[in-house]
UniProtKB/TrEMBL annotation:
It comes from Azospirillum aestuarii. The keyword Cell membrane does not apply. Residues 20-170 form the Phosphoribosyltransferase domain. Transmembrane segments: none annotated. Keywords: Glycosyltransferase, Transferase. This is Phosphoribosyltransferase. GO terms for molecular function: glycosyltransferase activity. Pfam families: Pribosyltran (PF00156). InterPro entries: PRTase-like, PRTase_dom.
Amino acid sequence: MSGPGVPFRFRDRSEAGRRLATRLAHLGDEKPVVLALPRGGVAVAVEVARALHAPLDLVLVRKIGAPFQPELAVGAVADGGRVETVINPDVADFVPESWIGEEKVRQLREIERRRAVYVGDRPRVPVAGRTAILVDDGIATGATMLAALRSVRRARPRRTVLAVPVAPLDVLSELRVEADEIVCLQAPNPFDAIGAFYEDFHQLDDAEVVHLLDEASRTRPTAAPSSNDRAP
């Protein structure tokens, strides 16, 4: 895990993905699965999957916003094969429990809609017994990545690796207990917004995500893991 240093800017998410892939090269022999957090994480993850000759799939995560301030996260819900909900107790104490439950249902519906749009009827890539590499374009608070990691763990991978181009050092330290390995290219302190570390940080739309995933699906490996790689 990288520590504080002189911050630098990536040209775009593709460059960040290629740089990240070089730091993950040691995992190539483990026949990993690369799991992207859309939307921005997909552009990073396709480069990692390509370099490692690994299949690519998604972990869909949605924030549960507060009713009085939607941008304030009450928690997050993720579907990486198993649904996982993470709640921020500091905020949840001020929100009715019934509302949280209703909002979770709404966000799960949106997750289902997005999976249908992004991957259609393509089956999920098997995760059980394999090394799962979770990739995003950066981490800010860590709430969505926490939900994603816990969701993927429910799918019983052999181990999990968190891989991002940039994140705050303190958040990475908190996530250390959730991942078997963390690879981060830079963790400056103090930390600015994720977009400050990219020259091009445009928001990907659904069409761009679908295009990237379609390209990856045409070249991704399809072989199942060997019996030695499967979960007991």
